[in-house]
Amino acid sequence: MANNSVDDIKPCFPLFGEPEYRENMKNKQDKYEERESMEKLEETFQWTTSAEYKELNFQREAVTINPAKACQPLGAVLCSLGFKGTLPYVHGSQGCVAYFRTYFNRHFKEPVACVSDSMTEDAAVFGGHKNMDAGLKNALALYKPEMIAVSTTCMAEVIGDDLHSFITNAKVKGHVPQDLPVPSAHTPSFVGSHTTGWDGMLEGIIRYFTLDKHESAVVGSNGKINLVPGFETYLGNYRILKRYMEEMDVPYTLLSDPSEVLDTPADGEYRMYVGGTELEDVKDTPNAIDTLLLQPWSLTKTKKYLKDTWQQPISEINPPMGLKWTDEYLMKVSQLSGKPIPASIELERGRLVDMMTDSHSWLHGKRFSLYGDPDFVMGLTNFLLELGAEPVHVMSNNANKRWGKAMSKILKSSPYGQETEVHVGTDLWHFRSLVFDRKPDFMIGNSYGKFIQRDTKHKGLEHEVKLIRLGFPIFDRHHLHRMTTLGYEGAMYILTTLVNAVLEDLDSKTTGYGETDYNYDLVR
Ligand code: SF4
């Protein structure tokens, strides 16, 4: 290429903006694309930003556009990665597994071990029994896992493959040893989402290890508290849950902990398995004092199994996000364990309160629209209200109506939530209409929101809604997955992110030389 040479390598931007490439692109469009004129595209763009279009958009029934959720087996894979020596195994199409792996690669910037038994057309007709036999045998021979955790793609679900009988038969036929743990979960992606899949896989693992043990369990006999994080992609959250328990001197079992395998060092050694919840600890979980479900809106299957079969209270708890809900969480742990909350955690709380006071004048009354998973969005909304910020739109595609009602109740209890709209089951194309219709100061969500920012900016600078990246997936910024959003430490990170976005935005609007720079202040 004429404009790129080994001595002066230019990346895609600005290289493709140069005349040679612009001409190439134009030729391609003119010759091979049935492209509308720019005038027509602009006219359609403007129409899609109107109130009239919003009405039509919300009548949409037959199609979902950019759904703000991923599919069930992706969640099952994340759950499986959090157990020691465990190989996630997906019964179904290879392409689906390639998608899960690349999705996690892009978010965590890490290799992700996961196998598929690669069902193709013949398996779709005759069933995937043979694939499972060969797949389990090969997976064990090649990767030598301590446990193989099996979930399914849509294809296996559509034809109705029965995981339990397939795995039992594979063991009877000697493809894998009888005593190799092979828990499973049916994870049909035409219902639910990645959070449902995580929940189903955990229930499958707990069921596998404890079904014949819960009746002889003595609640509280091991002195532990079980913590269930749910579909959690902030690695700092696993670490803070462990740190709090250790500082409180409370024994615990964290049910799924992929914080090591998704954060391995570059020291020349590839670690396929590292860290994770010990399988012996999983067997012991019915003997704990209690099990706390930290994403209560997403862990319904696990909750049902525990409530129906275990003797523990399964205490209700809100996600430990923000000030009050972290207070409640720590007090619950203290009450259950009989251990006091130590001075070190009190000090951390005090620091958070100090930070909230310091930043209050910048966040008070700032208007945010947010989207994401049900528990994350609820916890974040609750914290926004604690900061005196005003949620404008609160959206979760994979929540249910009961969540919507609970969310509205929380909002109505605060002076800052009186005007908030709650949307359940809607997608990011709906969200785009929402922020054009009632402009917030910022939107909060995963990387996909950047296209909404681009569109709002295209309508005019006064319409631009900047994206603050919190949630999953975050593909276009580095290392944010290592941060913490739970506990006081997590609230500090969220607060720092929000207030600095507000200040960056103010700086960007006050650089007008001799015009707006009267407010381009050194000290904010
Ligand atoms: S939705 Fe179904 S077909 Fe698509 S990636 Fe997920 S499991 Fe595969």
From TrEMBL:
<keyword id="KW-0067">ATP-binding</keyword>
<keyword id="KW-0535">Nitrogen fixation</keyword>
<dbReference type="InterPro" id="IPR005976">
    <property type="entry name" value="Nase_Mo-Fe_CF_bsu"/>
</dbReference>
<dbReference type="GO" id="GO:0016612">
    <property type="term" value="C:molybdenum-iron nitrogenase complex"/>
</dbReference>
<dbReference type="Pfam" id="PF00148">
    <property type="entry name" value="Oxidored_nitro"/>
</dbReference>
<dbReference type="InterPro" id="IPR024564">
    <property type="entry name" value="Nase_Mo-Fe_CF_bsu_N"/>
</dbReference>
<comment type="function">
    <text>This molybdenum-iron protein is part of the nitrogenase complex that catalyzes the key enzymatic reactions in nitrogen fixation.</text>
</comment>
<keyword id="KW-0560">Oxidoreductase</keyword>
<feature type="domain" description="Nitrogenase molybdenum-iron protein beta chain N-terminal">
    <location>
        <begin position="4"/>
        <end position="57"/>
    </location>
</feature>
<comment type="subunit">
    <text>Tetramer of two alpha and two beta chains. Forms complex with the iron protein (nitrogenase component 2).</text>
</comment>
<protein>
    <recommendedName>
        <fullName>Nitrogenase molybdenum-iron protein beta chain</fullName>
        <ecNumber>1.18.6.1</ecNumber>
    </recommendedName>
</protein>
<dbReference type="GO" id="GO:0051536">
    <property type="term" value="F:iron-sulfur cluster binding"/>
</dbReference>
<keyword id="KW-0411">Iron-sulfur</keyword>
<dbReference type="InterPro" id="IPR000510">
    <property type="entry name" value="Nase/OxRdtase_comp1"/>
</dbReference>
<dbReference type="GO" id="GO:0005524">
    <property type="term" value="F:ATP binding"/>
</dbReference>
<keyword id="KW-0408">Iron</keyword>
<feature type="domain" description="Nitrogenase/oxidoreductase component 1">
    <location>
        <begin position="71"/>
        <end position="502"/>
    </location>
</feature>
<keyword id="KW-0479">Metal-binding</keyword>
<dbReference type="GO" id="GO:0016163">
    <property type="term" value="F:nitrogenase activity"/>
</dbReference>
<dbReference type="GO" id="GO:0046872">
    <property type="term" value="F:metal ion binding"/>
</dbReference>
<keyword id="KW-0547">Nucleotide-binding</keyword>
<dbReference type="InterPro" id="IPR050152">
    <property type="entry name" value="ChlB/BchB/BchZ"/>
</dbReference>
<dbReference type="Pfam" id="PF11844">
    <property type="entry name" value="DUF3364"/>
</dbReference>
<comment type="similarity">
    <text>Belongs to the NifD/NifK/NifE/NifN family.</text>
</comment>
<dbReference type="InterPro" id="IPR000318">
    <property type="entry name" value="Nase_comp1_CS"/>
</dbReference>
